[in-house]
Amino acid sequence: MSFDVWMRIPIPRWRSQVRALYCPLIPADDYISLDRVRMVYENRCVFDSLSCGFPPGRISVVLGGSGSGKSTILRLIGGLVRPQAGAVIVHRQDVGRLSHRGLNLLRRKLGMVFQGGALLDSYSVFDNVALPLREQRRQSEREIAGAVHDILNAVGVSDADGLLPGELSGGMLRRVALARAIIRKPDVLLCDEPFSGLDPISIRRLETLLVQINRQFGMTLIVVSHDIPSTMRMADHVLLLLGARVWEGSPAEMRRSDDTEAAEFFRDGLERLQPQGKA
Amino acid sequence: MANPVSHVGYKAVRFVQGLGSLAAFTADIARSALTPPVRFAAFARELYKLGVRSLLIICVCGLAVGMVLGLQGHHTLVRFGAQRSLGAVVGLSLIRELGPVLTALLVAGRAGSATAAEIGAMVVTEQLNGLRMLSIDPVSLVIKPKAAAMLVVTPLLTALFIACGLYGGYLVGVGLLAGDPGSYMSSLRSAVNFHNDIECCMLKSAVFGLLLGLIATYRGYTSAPTAEGVSAATTASVVISSVTVLLTDYVITALWGI
């Protein structure tokens, strides 16, 4: 059995660690990887030679300090920025070398939830979520309305379809953005800090939603987060950006890692959640 | 001496890069305008935002300019005993020069700045990146309707400005200074030629509308994703638009006598 076929077999969750370890070596169609990527903004070098991979059909969480380039990884995968050197491979294509048209075709397989939602503020929630389907021009308005109501119902904001994005709470905004990102059922969902600024209940609700999407549709999720507890609950694969180097592995491996920096990052993240008196 | 020279060189290179970028942006809009979808609803929404909401300011300014022209024209014409030509003076001044130029400057200040700020805010809040990630071209969905609306709205507002100006001149010349209404209207009718004056005025105004639309949308589209960036884009949009309108006006007048 070739590696390619092996990659496509549904595997139980406990095997994800093994898969994550071997993924960089396996040439699969739906594998996402960064190979010796150099990224410089103005005079600031974000990555000098970053190499990492994201296993298909799994939830990968990107962790790291502020300014470590977590969001840049998502932007590189989405083709919103191009690297100065190296390759960003998504579905066997180097994103940095794609033409405008090629990039548009690739983006049909990608969905992205931006930190602030990035919803069009002059469009209602309904129109925002319907926009990707209307632009495709393959469905009637009636079918689109049905699909939009279904997805809004699934993410729990069915009663907000007539509101403008400015009238929504932070949690609702993220869920609407999530609905818009997944309405075309992309293969890969990129989430940029979906939990930041949310209360614990909203975090749990959104986290459950993301896991459901992953399990139900087999969608690859790449989530940028600061939230260690949610990472430990939902991640199959963790990518930790530590300055000039990267630590990769499963959450369990991260917990017992010998790498002092990785262990420290993990411990600090958990300690921040402890009440002051107990710290 | 090296630093000032390199500074000038840097500025020159940046200027040429900017021109190239604007040309590419213009080509993008042109390509988008020639390919479906038409986006008529978005275009109508922009017509309302840019045109209908500018009506009051255009009417008030047109009336004021016409009244000033009436007063100034009357005082000057009286010296030569030609006060019966007030209608021609007000009409030709407004139609050939002041109407298109002042309307373009008002549109740049009111609608152009609003357009640049709106697009800049969309850059800051990543709405344009959000569209790109949905495989939707932001130039087609956001920029094209705004630029097209500016192109259409500027000549229409110019016509309104001129109509208000002519009425303002009439109010002063006939109502305030007790001139002859028949003389005012007949001198206006005999002096203004439809092809040479009105058609050319509309053409000039359409050129201004095109430039205003391009500059406002380009400045907003390329603004830095910060509050300061949006503010700078808005200011630059108004300043560059105003200077461009005045320079273009001179070039058009010098080359074609419009």
* Element order of chain B: H for helix, E for strand: HHHHHHHHH
The whole-number mean of residue pLDDT values of chain B reads 93
Radius of gyration of chain A: 19 Å
Tally of extended strands of chain A? Answer: 10
Helix content of chain A: 40-55%
Shape of chain A: globular
Give the radius of gyration of chain B. 21 Å
Distance separating the two termini of chain A: 52 Å
* Biggest β-sheet strands, sense, barrel of chain A: 6 strands, mixed
Give the overall form of chain B: elongated
Strand content of chain B: under 5%
Major β-sheet strand ordering of chain A:
6-7-8-3-9-10
Tally of helical runs of chain A? 11
Order of helical and strand elements of chain A: HHEEEHEEHEHHHEHEHEEHH
Low-confidence parts of chain B: none
Give the termini separation of chain B: 45 Å
| Percent strand of chain A | 15-25%
* Tally of separate helices of chain B: 9
Name the average pLDDT of chain A: 83
The residue fraction in helices of chain B comes out at over 70%
Report on this structure:
The complex is a heterodimer of chains A (279) and B (258). By secondary structure, chain A is α/β, with parallel strands linked by helices. Chain A is built from eleven helices and ten strands. In chain A, the strands form two sheets. In chain A, strands 6-7-8-3-9-10 form a six-stranded mixed sheet, with helices on both faces. Chain A has a four-stranded antiparallel sheet with strand order 2-1-4-5, with helices on one face. In chain A, a hairpin with a 2-residue loop joins strand 9 and strand 10. The N terminus and C terminus of chain A are likely disordered. Chain B is built from nine helices and no strands. Chain B starts with a helix and ends with a helix. Chains A and B meet through helix 4, strand 6, helix 5 and helix 7 of A and helix 5 of B.
